[in-house]
Design goal:
This protein is elongated. It has four domains: about 80 residues, Arc Repressor Mutant, subunit A; about 50 residues; about 80 residues, SH3 type barrels (Roll); about 60 residues, Alpha-Beta Plaits (2-Layer Sandwich), CATH 3.30.70. The chain starts with a helix and ends with a strand. It contains eleven helices and eleven strands. With about 300 residues, the protein is of the alpha+beta class. The protein has a five-stranded antiparallel beta sheet. Strands 9-10-8-11 form a four-stranded antiparallel beta sheet, covered by helices on one side.
Length: about 300
């Protein structure tokens, strides 16, 4: 390998190792690559210059010396790369979600782990290995990553789509809708959409794994700003992924954990407390909330239900 090629390879490898979280010692690097301490210092200086020049594109990072070790760190904490703790937490969330089939889940976990140094990668892999080995994919077993990406682009371009939809009773229907958002809830990804006519102002909810033969039309649509769908606000009101009119429920709660109830219903507010019974109001689309409240037995009593 020529000197210039050897220098480029060495610089790239040092950068990659630092970026993955390795702590590198100048003397060890000099011995490993068979070069002088001055040469390693020049490599580090060139990497620092590169990071400064590219800060607007990749964020502000720097190579610092701490306890005689070179470390790669963000100038601002918000620009920092993923740590082994981050990767472990994200891996646990992914595995618990069961959102993807085994092939796509393994691929995602591997890509996350590839952000780490070899030592950290082995450590994280050991911590989740058992969960990954016994991972049980959902019954539909479908690949979803590419479908999610395509639907997201269509939503951004505000294009009308058509598709075949398989209902819970296995009957197929043809749909033509204006897609506005993708959401995830309890194992499944959902497409949120409006019907084609302006009169159809009730959000429709479709499980994406039940959609097939998806076609993207050239026809676009426009939603005025005042009516524009807001993912965050909608999510607060559709915890159970049921479409339908927006409703307000007033109910009494006498269960042991008020915190769990309020966490389950993000729009819920306590309006009264009397004799250890909380009166709560909450907004939600469709009847999903009603079905859930009724499933809570004697801990919940619905007082009023009305459309907003």
């Amino acid at each position: 390998m020529s000197d210039s090629r050897d220098k480029k390879f060495r610089g790239l490898e040092i950068y990659d190792r630092l970026r993955r979280g390795e702590r590198l010692v100048k003397e060890d690097l000099a011995n490993e690559y068979g070069v002088s301490l001055k040469t390693i210092q020049r490599d580090i200086d060139e990497l620092r210059a590169y990071l400064f020049e590219k800060k607007d594109e990749i964020g502000e990072f720097e190579i610092k010396v701490k306890n005689k070790e070179y470390i790669y760190t963000a100038v601002s904490e918000s620009d920092n790369t993923l740590t082994q703790q981050d990767i472990l937490a994200l891996s646990k969330i992914l595995l618990e979600s069961r959102a993807f089939n085994k092939k796509e889940m393994s691929l995602l976990l591997k890509k996350l782990q590839n952000q780490l140094s070899l030592e950290s990668k082995i450590h994280v892999r050991e911590l989740i290995n058992n969960e990954e080995f016994y991972y049980t994919e959902l019954k539909h077993g479908k690949d979803l990553l590419e479908v999610l990406w395509s639907l997201s682009n269509v939503i951004r371009e505000t294009r009308v789509i058509t598709f075949d939809y398989t209902r819970m009773d296995k009957k197929q229907t043809k749909k033509e809708v204006r897609p506005i958002s993708i959401m995830f809830s309890e194992f499944y990804f959902y497409l949120i959409a409006y019907g084609i006519t302006n009169e159809e102002d009730v959000p429709l909810v479709f499980r994406i794994d039940r959609m097939s033969n998806i076609k993207y039309k050239d026809e676009t649509f426009y939603i005025p700003y005042r009516d524009r769908f807001e993912d965050g606000e909608f999510r607060k009101r559709i915890q159970f992924m049921y479409g339908g009119k927006l409703k307000k429920f007033t109910f009494e709660f006498s269960g042991p954990s008020l915190e769990a109830m309020l966490d389950r219903l993000p729009t819920a507010k306590v309006i009264k407390l009397e004799d250890k019974v909380h009166t709560i109001v909450a907004e939600s689309y469709g009847d999903g909330i009603k079905m859930w409240l009724n499933s809570q037995g004697e801990n919940v009593k619905i007082i009023e239900e009305r459309e907003i």
